[in-house]
Amino acid sequence: MHRSATGVLAVFCAALMALFCAACSSDSGSEAELDETPPVVTGSYPASGGTGVSRSGPFWVAFSEPMNELSAQAAFSLAPGPVYFETDWRGDTLVVTPTALLSAGTAYTMTVGAAAEDEHGNALGAAYAVDFTTTAVQDETPPHVVSTVPVNGAIHVSGIQPVEIVWSEPMDRHSAQSAVEISPEPEDWWIEWESATMTIHHSAFPEEEPVTVAIGTGAADLSGNNLAALFALSFTTASDDTRPYLASASPANGAAGVSTGISQIVLTFSEPMDRTSFQIPADHIDARIIQVVREEPSWNASYSAITVPVMRTLLPGCTYWIRFLNVTDAAGNVIDPNPTSYEFTTAGTQTLYPVKSGAVWNLLGRYDETGTRMIEDYSPSTGNFDEVHRNGVGQTREIVHLRKTASEVYHRGRSEYDDGAYQFSMMWNDPILYLRFPLESYLGQSWNFSTTATISATRSMSLSGRCEIEAAKVNLVSGVLNGTFRGCYVHHLYADFIMYENGIPVDEGSAHQIMWLAPGVGPVQMVSQDPGYSDTLRVYDWSL
Fold it and tell me: Which of 43, 98, 110, 542 gives the lowest tally of CB atoms within 10 Å of its CB?
């Protein structure tokens, strides 16, 4: 059996990291506030006092309303233990399947603890417990296949239709999976389980071809009883020469004023798609989408619609985009047009240099060392704020003192640290005009600066140079996010300095800093070039 990374996961989740929940809509939020009713258990198998209960399960507990699944699973137990089991959900019912047989003729207690919560955080309140006794009779009945999807002999089957096999009882999953053979073997296939149901997912089979899924007698149930005879399912795939297209989307393609608090993106195609074909190059997807999608997207049953969870608040006034390149339907037909563009723009005002206390950008350096750039001590009345640069262990390296107005950013000075230990500070006698807004109006323009600073009673510095905005915006492909920051402004700072001791020049040098400013995110890449030295910092995550 082959197993490769799911294509859609590669598209949307190139850098899967920590999870941050997105804000809910105002309606769902008010609903959660109004629901104060605790859930209750409405039924279970086995019933309390049950005897002769199957040692293999599956067992289940039904609740009165949708539950916080992780909370309910964590609150479930089978004793005496240890008992290892798999959990699945069927609507509001928790299904539990042991991975090995329970002991014969033994009294067990199945419990859902009082801490189990519904979707709105209401706890069960009191534990629900069921006592039962397992059968002492040895299971000697071989397992068999109850049903399949598609059925044996089916024709015109979609080339990516998952193959579903329902067993008569819970199986030893390793032996069942090892016994599967598929002809012709797809490039990629994998198996998922839900209780006694085995679902084979696969890349597209050739069209108008017979397909056989065989399961050998090595497949066994939890008691070790093997399948009595080879099982074979045969069907024929459909013919299809129609190119798929993006039929609809939510938010709509080209939509404006989209809420920054949406919790998902739903894309619906005209027909079932081959999800393994969704390998989108980095220059065809917005790096900001990758930053907010931190959980695997899910497809509907027909593989014609994908739901992409948005796990963080979107940036205001920004256009989020993706270009679906060379994705195909189940028969291998390429999307029309190829590529297909999808984009939407969020509500609010875009900024190219976000300034808010607590805003943080996570950085990756030249040798993959990590660090952060954080806004601290921002005063809305004066516009003054600090950019605090720290290394990967949280030690302060530098504090840059700045001021932002509606149309400008000034560099006021800096404080130097060594592994977190304060060294010195200096403030420019004439703050340096660092940025001008709107940047669109200053493309291809530059301006000069000249200033001095006192470092100590005997030491001072002079600084002169120019700032420049490149004439054209650029698309910056991020190697750390596997996406692209589109429409970046490129800012250059050229500086020459002279250091004085008691008014006598003792040192001099020059520097060149390049900064890429991405809509909504601000500085996403910074290159420092001194004679004989160069360093690059790249943004890989942010919280603004």
Answer: 43
pLDDT value at residue 17: 25
Helix, strand, or coil (residue 9): helix
DSSP string, 277-318: G----GGGBBHHHHHH--S--EE-TTSSEEEEE--SPPPTT-
Residues 40 and 127: beta-carbon distance below 8 Å: no
| Dist. CA 411–CA 382, nearest whole Å | 14
DSSP, collapsed to helix, strand or coil, labels residue 461 as: strand
Neighbours of 240 (CB within 10 A): 20
* Dihedral (CA of 109, 115, 121, 124) sign: positive
8-state DSSP, 138: -
Q: What is the domain partition of the chain in residue ranges?
A: 7-15+242-346, 46-134, 145-237, 360-543
Q: Is the pLDDT of residue 13 over 80?
A: no
Interval 67-79 mean pLDDT = 94
CATH 2.40.50 at 360-543, yes or no: no
Q: Tokens 């006598």 map to which residue?
A: 504
Check whether domain 145-237 has CATH 3.60.9.10, yes or no: no
Tokens of 326: 């060379």
Mean pLDDT of 162-171: 94
Q: Give the model's pLDDT for residue 34.
A: 66
Q: Tokens for 172? A: 């030893």
pLDDT at 275 > cutoff 90? no
**Facing residues of 95 across strands?**
60, 88
The pLDDT of residue 117 is above 60: yes
What is d(CA 403, CA 383) in angstroms, rounded to the nearest whole number?
A: 5
* Token code pair at residue 387: 């950019």
Distances (CA, A) of 61 to 64, 83, 328: 10, 17, 41
- Which 8-state DSSP code applies to residue 36? -
pLDDT band of 23, cuts 50, 70, 90? very low
pLDDT score of 519: 96
Other CB atoms within 10 A of residue 235 CB: 22
- Is the domain spanning 46-134 CATH 2.60.40.1220? The answer is yes
